[in-house]
Amino acid sequence: MKETRAFLARLGLPEGDRYDLPTSTKRFADGGQYRFEVPGIQGPGAMKALLVELEKYGLPIHRVTQTKGIMSLTNEEIQAMAAMAERYQVELILAIGPRATTDTSASVNTPEGQRMGYRLRGQEQIVRALEDVKRAARLGCRSFLVYDEGCLWVLNEARKAGEIPTECRFKVSAHCGHGNPCAAKLLEQTGADSLNPVRDIQLQMLAAMRQAIDIPLDIHTENPASTGGFIRHYEVPEMIRVAAPIYLKTGGSVAKTHSWDTTEADARARAKQVLLVKRMIDQYYPEAIWSDQES
Question: What is residue 110's predicted lDDT score, i.e. its pLDDT?
Answer without folding.
Answer: 84
